[in-house]
Amino acid sequence: MRAVIFDVDGTLVDSNDAHAAAWVTALAEAGVRVDKAHVRRLIGEGGDKLLPQVTGLSEDSPRGERIGERRAEIFRTRYLPNLRPFRGARALVMLLRARGHEIGVATSAKPDELEPLLRIAEVDDLIRLRTSSGDADRSKPDPDIVQAALKRMGCRPDDAIMIGDTPYDVEAARRAGVATIALRCGGWPDENLAGAVAIYDDPEDLRVNYERSPLARMAVGRG
C-alpha cells in the first residue's frame, strides 16, 4: 500500500479565507465581534475547536449550534459557488493514481460540504475513500480523522503520507504516526509547517517535483 491522504480546504481548494469570513459573519450576527485574522489562523480546525477558542461556547451548546448552522449556511450560499481549485489539483491526483498510490481524504469539513468541495477541486471522480468531521469525535489537530482515514483505507501509518496546508494537518498526522507533505497555498508560512517532511507551493509544484519528492521515494521503497 502506498496511501496518500489529502486534506481539502486550503490544499486542493482555495477556501480558507472563505471559511474565515463565514465564521466572522455568523459570529457578528450572534453579537460576537472577533478579529478575522485570529479566526483565519484557526481555519483547519473544526468547529469543535474553533468555536470555544473565539467565544468560550461549546459547539454542541444551543447557542453554539445556532452559530455553527448559520456559518454553514453563509459558507454554502455566499462563498462555495465562487471557490476555485488550486492549480494542479486534479493533475496531481491523476499522477498519484497513475503511480499506484491509493488516494483518500481526511478533512475537518462537514460531510455535506465535502462533496461540493471535491467537485470544485475536480477530483470527485478520482477519490472514493473519504473521511470528514462526521467520521471523528474530535477534529484536527487531534488524530481522529487521520486514524479514520487509515482504517477506511486499510493501511498502516507508516504506509501512508498526508498532504495538507496547516499546522493542524501536520500535528494530526504526526499523532497518527503519519508523515506530512505541506503546501504553502493555504496561507501558512514555512515556520508553522516545520514538522512536515517537505513543503511545496501548491499541488502543481508538488506534481512537477514528484520524482524528487517523498512520494516518489515512498513508491520506489514499496516496489
Keywords:
223 residues; alpha/beta; Rossmann fold; DNA polymerase, domain 1; 2 domains; 6-stranded parallel β-sheet; 10 helices; 6 strands; globular
Shape: globular
Strand order of the largest sheet: 3-2-1-4-5-6
What kind of sheet is the major sheet? Answer: 6 strands, parallel
- What is the terminal-to-terminal distance? 10 Å
Give the ordered list of helices and strands. EHHHHHEHEHEHEEHH
Could you name the ranges where pLDDT drops below 50 across 5 or more consecutive residues?
A: none
User: How helical, in percent, are the residues?
Assistant: 40-55%
**Strands, total number:** 6
Assign the CATH architecture of the largest domain.
3-Layer(aba) Sandwich
Cα gyration radius (Å): 17 Å
Tell me the structural class. alpha/beta
Number of domains: 2
Provide mean pLDDT, rounded: 94
Tell me the name of the CATH class of the largest domain. Answer: Alpha Beta
Tell me the strand percentage band: 5-15%
CATH topology of the largest domain: Rossmann fold
How many helices? The count is 10
CATH superfamily of the largest domain: HAD superfamily/HAD-like
Tell me what you see in this structure.
- Helix content is 45%, strand content 11%.
- With 223 residues, the protein is an alpha/beta fold.
- The chain folds into 2 domains: 150 residues, HAD superfamily/HAD-like (Rossmann fold), CATH 3.40.50; 66 residues, DNA polymerase, domain 1, CATH 1.10.150.
- The model has no long low-confidence stretch (mean pLDDT 94).
- The N and C termini lie close together (10 Å).
- Helix 6 links the parallel strand 2 and strand 3.
